[in-house]
Amino acid sequence: MLIYVHVPFCRTRCRYCAFFSSPLGRGVDPAASPAVTAYADTLFLELAHWGDRLGGSEVESVFFGGGTPSLLPPRLVGLILERIGKYFHLAPRAEITLEANPESLRGGHRAAQYLTAGVNRLSLGVQSMDETMLRVLGRSHKAADSLHSVFLAREAGFANISVDLMWGLPGQSVRQWLQTLKDVLRMNPEHVSAYGLTLEPGTELEREVEEGRLRLPEERDQNIMFMEGAALLEQNGYLHYEVSNFARMGFQCRHNTGYWEGEDYLGLGPSATSTIAGRRWTNPAGQNAWDTRVRQRTLGSEVEELTLRTRALELMMLRLRTARGLRMQAYRELTGRDFLRDHKRMVQALHENGLIRIRNGYLRLTRSGMLVSNAILSNLFARADEVLRQGVPSGKTSAALAGEEKTLPQAQAGEGPEVVGVRWPRADTV
Ligand code: SF4
To answer: How far apart are CA 291 and CA 286, in angstroms?
Structure first.
């Protein structure tokens, strides 16, 4: 099992961000903040609640995400990990990741204290090494803070550092993006996540682009950013193991890989989602509403039972984003259906255009396919959803189908919407 801990605080709000978080304010000491104390109290109650119900489960990964988890005092992070260890079986070599903003590691021995607390992987929100881009994004750090934070983390003894980056930013040129990557390569992180910017509705950045005060790079430039960026990282020894993720051999993020492989995960904290044994629920987003739910012991009361169709669609969508791809036998075991037969025309067109490869029972996107993965996956999703609504071939009902959608008739292979338009749409985003 994986555990995700959502930390809902940030110093200030970045201009592109739509995540749930509360601004703590610039001068506020998190160790003395009543909001952080209240959060910790509720989190411990939530952990005890799930400890009673799921206690003893083996936990292979804990991920502190947010928000800005590096605002939490290291001592508190240590206490949370201690409680997790008390209620669950924390695997001896579990991956313990903490997302950190570069400026929050400044001064003192914070990185070393997180390491002592039990964190063994830092995920640094670098985003860009270009000061203009950092200002456009509304980040509160400078490029020098990023460089310094990696230095401090290494000095503290961290042997697993990930750097988060964004490309396709307003006003960004291909040259600027590749320069950011070269600067990051000099820091030698074990892992790089490179996300294309998504303009989230309601954010300052979205408004400024809408009003024409900022301009996104041309589509052609965004495509070059993705293709050349990925090539540069690969030339420097990073495996492109998921659309937006690159790692040195053996340093793929185990937590995210667990999500993509359909492992159970327990989400703690406001707005966190959990999926355990085919059931999914999401905590309320507000800290007060979450606190009430925890104290009333009504966590997980609004549960979505994952149907076969949902599980099959998720399997397809998540696996196809990875370099390994979709094991078609896994699709068959879950649905009793033949993936290639169900998606014959679409698969043929994608193959002819060099967007997918099929090998050893796996179907995967090529680099060009990854560039347009959103378009490919939304078309496949629509087709698969339609097919799975119709059901499974008679006599091929899999064990996974027991009790679910057994009576649906067989679908016709080769039907469905036209294949994805094979052109260069807007570069992929996450
Ligand atoms: S630090 Fe992260 S979570 Fe907080 S506002 Fe910025 S992008 Fe959003």
So the answer is: 8
| Nearest residue (CA) to ligand 1, atom 2 | 67
Q: How far is the CA of 198 from the centre of ligand 1 (A)?
A: 14
Burial pattern 65-90, b for ≥16 Cβ within 10 A else e, equals: bbbbbbbbbbebbbbbbebbeebbeb
For the Cβ of 14 lying below 6 angstroms from any atom of ligand 1, the answer is yes
Ligand 1 atom having least distance to the Cα of 67: 3
For the CA of 13, the nearest atom of ligand 1: 5
Q: Is the CB of 17 under 6 A from ligand 1?
A: yes
Separation of CA 124 and ligand 1 centre (Å): 12
| Apex 92 CA angle, 86 and 94, nearest 5 | 90
Shortest-distance Cα residue to atom 6 of ligand 1: 14
Q: Say if residues 153 and 111 touch (Cβ distance below 8 Å).
A: yes
E strand residue ranges, 112-216: 121-127, 161-167, 191-196
Q: Which residue's CA is the nearest one to ligand 1's atom 8?
A: 17
393 falls in which pLDDT band (50, 70, 90)?
A: low
The average confidence (pLDDT) of the chain is 89
The better pLDDT of the pair 248, 384 is held by 248
pLDDT tens across 44-65, in order?
A: 999 999 999 997 889 999 999 9
- DSSP character for 190? S
What pTM did the predictor assign?
0.89
> Do residues 303 and 279 lie in contact, with contact meaning Cβ atoms separated by under 8 Å?
yes
CA of 298 to the centre of ligand 1 (A): 29
Task: Give DSSP secondary structure letters for 208-276.
Answer: HHHTTSS-PPPHHHHHHHHHHHHHHHHHTT-EEEETTEEE-TT-S-HHHHHHHTT--EEEESTT-EEEE
In what side-by-side order are the strands of the sheet with 326-327?
326-327, 362-365, 356-359
Domains and CATH numbers, the chain: 2-260 (3.20.20.70), 308-401 (1.10.10)
In the reported structure, the alpha carbon of residue 273 is separated from the centroid of ligand 1 by a whole-number distance in angstroms of 18
For ligand 1, is residue 205 a contact (CB within 6 Å)? no
The residue with greater pLDDT, 27 or 226, is 226
- Report the distance separating Cα 80 and Cα 5, nearest Å: 9
The per-residue pLDDT for range 220-243, each reduced to its tens digit, is 999 999 999 999 999 999 999 999
Nearest to 266 by CA among 83, 402, 78, 403: 83
